[in-house]
Design goal:
Largest sheet: none
Shape: elongated
Structural class: mainly alpha
Length: 147
Amino acid sequence: MNIFEALRESHDRQRGYADALIQTHGESEARVEAYKQLKAELQAHETAEERFFYVPLMKFDNGVDLSRHAISEHHEMDELMEELDETDMSSPAWLVTAKKLSEKVHHHLKEEEQKFFQMAGKLLDDTQKEKLAGSYVKEYEEQLAEE
């Protein structure tokens, strides 16, 4: 497995959780569970991805701006999750923020897969891609276990 395959597995889960979240209503059990899954997935993925994808890419001149942009989008998603944590789930404002988060997740994943992966594919060799995948998966699983 290479780093792109490992990241895409999490991306697929994120899309599913984000889509499920905005289909929920009120302070239902489904909403609580969907948000819990999405938040845990995003947090574990962000940490592992930053450490074992974006930091290594920053060693290349062509990877610096790309990595900074992606990390700033992770920060925006974190801020939206903080806003959700501070808002009552039954409030209409909660769903508005959840939709913003879902849109940001979808935008970020599309951008990563269509732009960032192509650039990173040119910067990293096959050995690096496989090594980073192993490190990413290990960190991701450790982060998820802490949730």
